[in-house]
Write a structure and sequence with these properties.
Helix content is 26%, strand content 29%. The protein is built from four helices and six strands, in the order αααββαββββ. The protein has a six-stranded antiparallel beta sheet. The radius of gyration is 19 Å and the shape is globular. 18% of the residues are buried. This is PhoU family transcriptional regulator.
Length: 141
């Protein structure tokens, strides 16, 4: 009887530790659709990390805390990450999949800027701010 209880306890613990769809350590795949669905003005640092994962780079730029998320299919590809300059050429050539910039005020996000390559080969920006409706515009030729 003790062995059965021990065995059931182990199964219960293993089941409780697993999660449907993967572990909480997995980073989400950021697409424009994902950003449109999940980006919300006013999320806290912890809430942002829950939704988007751990930021790749963060610092204060022009008195504003800024976070950067980016991704590339090429594991050995490196580029000069910057919180001040968008890597348009890297996105346009397909070396970089996207860049997502978040700006914070009072420890809450107040702006999202997602840069990605559109089907037309141009670099596009999807922007979300508290003042405006979401905006999608081309930023390259």
């Amino acid at each position: 009887m003790k062995k059965i209880l021990l065995w059931l306890s182990c199964i219960f613990i293993l089941a409780a530790c697993s999660s449907e769809g993967g572990t909480s350590d997995e980073e989400p795949i950021l697409t424009k659709e994902y950003i449109e669905e999940k980006a919300k003005i006013g999320l806290t640092y912890d809430e942002v990390r829950e939704v988007f994962g751990t930021e790749d780079l963060s610092d204060v730029v022009d008195s504003t805390e800024t976070w950067l998320y980016d991704s590339t299919h090429h594991s050995d590809y490196e580029y000069d990450q910057s919180l001040e300059v968008i890597a348009s050429e890297e996105i346009k050539t397909g070396k970089l999949d996207y860049q997502l910039y978040l700006n914070f005020m009072d420890e809450k996000v107040f702006m999202y800027a997602f840069f990605y390559k559109g089907e037309d080969g141009k670099v596009w920006q999807y922007q979300l701010t508290p003042q405006n409706e979401p905006l999608t515009t081309p930023v390259s030729n």
